[in-house]
């Protein structure tokens, strides 16, 4: 029995000795290790180096020289945040317990073109309808729909009400200005209510390896008509530079529909779906890992262009008017 | 009533008789086991950090012992949350089938060492709770390799016990796992045909690049009825290389009931 038990313990010892080899311990949380992990992961999985002409190696040389293991957490955060800022991408964030880095230049350097108070007071009024996240009001026989975040879920009953009211109107305005995005499935659902037939609206590819040009194949993104009901009359979508991410995708879906047009300023972009990661010190981050192009191979990351370029006119605002909404109403009533 | 004609019943009875005769030389057992598994793992597609935690783990094993060989078919299921040292969490689920065949033509089936082979099929899926996109990843492998069993029966205070250890090492097979970024394996959507896509998604599993080995040690108390109670300790390791590597360690402690079927 003693001899045979020995075999068992030899086997157990063998397995346990494999543990460190199979599953090495967590990497060190030292600043240099944290820096290297972040730089490498971005290097391997970020999708827009070539498109944006970013020399990530050169950025590493510049920032790596400033990292030392005795630097404090705040210093390290600021250095990493500055490095990530160079990606010029609104889908890039470094999240710590004390701050979240971001690059919001994609809208900060452009006209706002949206005044929520003005819309509340002059257009939605006191008796607008609230169907989940969709706020809607009939203005001069035109249905105005305001949707502020694609993160807020649209239910089928919410959408059914909007379609019913749209059918009794001369057209629909969908205002997604300042809508910073959210869940793509909400964008698809809303756009599907205005689609007459199935159509490809964009193509997407995903990083498939560490090389800057290692991507999987382009895959079509398809929009199908909503099975419950559709409104195939005229639709005008209002966008501005703060229409980002899922909102850019929504704008592109509507852009391909023959019965819709975009009015305002181009969207802010956000055409890369972000992937997440975490660092050995517990901080988490995200960055774009896909590319999406429209039917003319234009990157959605650069924003979706509008059919009618129009900025909010301060003089109109003084009169209590949103000239983008007024222009949309005028077009739909024509 | 053509269905019950003698022409049909006779072959059926002969076949049934042959099966019964074969059964008379075999023993059939069913093991049911449940317990806890301390699992630690790392999926580089998610993070360089180790995620670990206690999961519920259960087994159902059907075994057939004939004079010259023993075959077992073991269905496994594990589920539970795993966390890293900063508290980020993911939910881990695994399901698998582990088959053993041991040969004992030259030695008694009840004691000693028996060589054989094992076939392991494991599907693992995990969802990260802190990531909004690409939060789901999975892997599957099927492989075969050598297996070794040791049985030592003994008596203690008038009761029958046996110590049984089974070890397996998977050497060669196939694997499929989530892609570089997303849940779907690389190549799954590159071709028009489903079969072509499946072939692109499948990669070889071979020892050296990939590993899967484990032990199952059980202390079994045989009851006078022929059924038995047991406790089992089960360490195992597995790694899948290539793409985003996946590494996994498990230590399970299980309480087991064995039911003698025939």
Can you tell me about this structure?
The complex is a heterodimer of chains A (334) and B (262). Chain A is α/β, with parallel strands linked by helices. Chain A has 2 domains: 79 residues, Transcription Regulator spoIIAA; 208 residues, 2-enoyl-CoA Hydratase, Chain A, domain 1 (Alpha-Beta Complex). Helix content of chain A is 37%, strand content 18%. In chain A, the strands form 3 sheets. Chain A has a 7-stranded mixed beta sheet with strand order 2-3-4-5-8-9-13, with helices on both faces. A 3-stranded antiparallel beta sheet of chain A has the order 1-11-10, covered by helices on one side. A 3-stranded antiparallel beta sheet of chain A has the order 7-6-12. The radius of gyration of chain A is 25 Å and the shape is elongated. Chain B has a single domain, classed as OPCA outer membrane adhesin/invasin (Lipocalin), CATH 2.40.128.100. In chain B, strands 1-2-3-4-5-6-7-10-11-12 form a 10-stranded antiparallel β-barrel. The radius of gyration of chain B is 22 Å and the shape is globular. Chain B starts with 5 loop residues before the first helix and ends with a strand. In chain B, 33% of the residues are buried. Classes of the chains: A alpha/beta (334), B mainly beta (262).
Features:
heterodimer; A: 334 residues; alpha/beta; Transcription Regulator spoIIAA; 2-enoyl-CoA Hydratase, Chain A, domain 1; seven-stranded mixed sheet; three-stranded antiparallel sheet; 18% strand; B: 262 residues; mainly beta; Lipocalin; ten-stranded antiparallel barrel; 2 helices; 12 strands; 61% strand; globular
């Amino acid at each position: 029995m003693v001899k045979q038990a020995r075999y068992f313990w030899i086997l157990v010892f063998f397995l346990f000795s494999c543990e460190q080899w199979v599953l090495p311990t967590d990497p060190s949380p030292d600043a240099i290790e944290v820096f290297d992990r972040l730089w490498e992961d971005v290097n391997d999985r970020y999708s827009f180096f070539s498109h944006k002409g970013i020399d990530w190696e050169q950025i590493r040389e510049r920032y790596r020289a400033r990292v030392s293991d005795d630097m404090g957490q705040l210093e390290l955060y600021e250095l990493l945040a500055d490095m990530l800022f160079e990606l010029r991408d609104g889908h890039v964030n470094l999240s710590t317990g004390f701050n979240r880095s971001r690059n919001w230049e994609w809208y900060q350097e452009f006209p706002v073109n949206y005044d929520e108070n003005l819309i509340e007071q002059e257009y939605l009024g006191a008796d607008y309808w609230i169907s989940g996240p969709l706020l809607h009001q009939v203005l001069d026989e035109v249905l105005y729909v305001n949707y502020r975040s694609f993160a807020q879920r649209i239910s089928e009953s919410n959408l059914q009400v909007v379609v019913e009211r749209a059918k009794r109107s001369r057209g629909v305005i969908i205002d997604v200005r300042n809508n910073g995005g959210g869940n793509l499935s909400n964008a698809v659902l809303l756009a599907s209510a205005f689609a007459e037939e199935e159509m490809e609206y964009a193509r997407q590819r995903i990083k498939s390896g560490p090389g800057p040009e290692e991507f999987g194949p382009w895959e079509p993104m398809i929009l199908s008509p909503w099975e419950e009901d559709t409104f195939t009359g005229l639709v005008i979508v209002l966008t501005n530079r703060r229409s980002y991410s899922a909102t850019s995708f929504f704008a592109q879906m509507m852009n391909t529909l023959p019965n819709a047009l975009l009015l305002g300023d181009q969207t802010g972009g956000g055409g890369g779906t972000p992937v997440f990661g975490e660092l050995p010190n517990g901080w988490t981050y995200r960055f774009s890992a896909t590319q999406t192009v429209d039917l003319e191979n234009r990157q959605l990351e650069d924003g979706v262009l509008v059919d009618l370029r129009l900025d909010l006119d301060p003089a109109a605002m003084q009169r209590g008017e949103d000239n983008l909404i007024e222009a949309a109403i005028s077009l739909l009533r024509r | 009533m053509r269905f019950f004609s003698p022409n049909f019943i006779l072959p059926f009875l002969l076949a049934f008789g042959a099966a019964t005769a074969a059964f008379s030389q075999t023993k059939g057992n069913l093991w049911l086991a449940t317990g806890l598994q301390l699992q630690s793992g790392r999926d580089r597609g998610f993070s360089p950090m180790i995620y670990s935690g206690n999961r519920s783990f259960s087994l159902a094993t059907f075994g057939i012992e004939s004079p010259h060989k023993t075959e077992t078919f073991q269905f496994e299921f594990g589920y539970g949350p795993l966390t890293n040292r900063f508290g980020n969490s993911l939910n881990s689920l695994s399901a698998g089938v582990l088959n053993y065949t041991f040969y004992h033509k030259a030695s008694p089936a009840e004691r000693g060492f028996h060589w054989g082979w094992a076939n392991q099929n494991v599907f693992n899926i995990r969802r990260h709770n802190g990531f909004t996109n690409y939060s789901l990843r999975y892997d599957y492998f099927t492989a075969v390799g050598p297996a070794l069993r040791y049985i030592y029966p003994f008596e203690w205070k008038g009761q029958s016990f046996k110590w049984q250890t089974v070890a397996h090492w998977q050497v060669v097979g196939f694997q499929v796992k989530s892609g570089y970024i997303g849940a779907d394996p690389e190549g799954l959507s590159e071709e028009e045909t489903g079969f072509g896509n499946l072939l692109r998604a499948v990669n070889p599993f071979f020892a050296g690049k990939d590993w899967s080995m484990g032990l199952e040690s059980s202390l079994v108390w045989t009851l006078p009825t022929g059924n038995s109670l047991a406790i089992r300790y089960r360490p195992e390791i597995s790694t899948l290389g290539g793409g985003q590597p996946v590494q996994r360690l498990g230590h399970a402690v299980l309480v087991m009931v064995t039911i003698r079927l025939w």
